[in-house]
Design a protein that fits this description.
This is Helix-turn-helix domain-containing protein. About 50% of the residues lie in helices and about 10% in strands. With about 120 residues, the chain is mostly helical. The chain has a three-stranded antiparallel β-sheet. Helix 1 packs antiparallel against helix 3.
């Protein structure tokens, strides 16, 4: 069960014990969502939604962030008018040791392989 939102500005997130492997893998299986996660991992800090320059519509970008949040991959919080996104690396590493690092390493390897053609 997802933790309820306290106000209209609070977004529901799964508690650590509610995060499921199949939801995480589904969230990471999309090219745009993986791109978001790679940027968050590389930056190591919270980034606003507007930071990401994705080649999709705003509504599609919103959808991708929602999938990542509901899967427990990212945490979204409002700070003023900005919605900030942070990778839930500690939670994911605790639940699925090595998974996130392996996915990020594989994505980096694939990116190099495809760009070296």
């Amino acid at each position: 069960m997802t933790a309820p939102a306290v106000s209209s500005r609070d977004l529901p997130h799964p508690r650590r014990e509610e995060i499921r492997l199949e939801a995480v893998l589904h969230a990471l299986s999309d090219q745009m969502r993986l791109r978001i996660v790679r940027e968050l991992a590389a930056d190591g800090d919270e980034l606003s939604c507007s930071h990401f320059d994705l080649p999709v519509t705003k509504s599609t970008t919103t959808h991708h962030f929602r999938v990542l949040r509901e899967a427990g991959v990212v945490r979204q919080v409002y700070r003023g008018t900005a919605k900030l996104n942070g990778l839930r690396k500690d939670d994911l590493d605790d639940l699925f040791p090595g998974l996130l690092d392996a996915v990020l390493d594989a994505a980096a390897h694939e990116s190099r392989r495809l760009h070296d053609r």
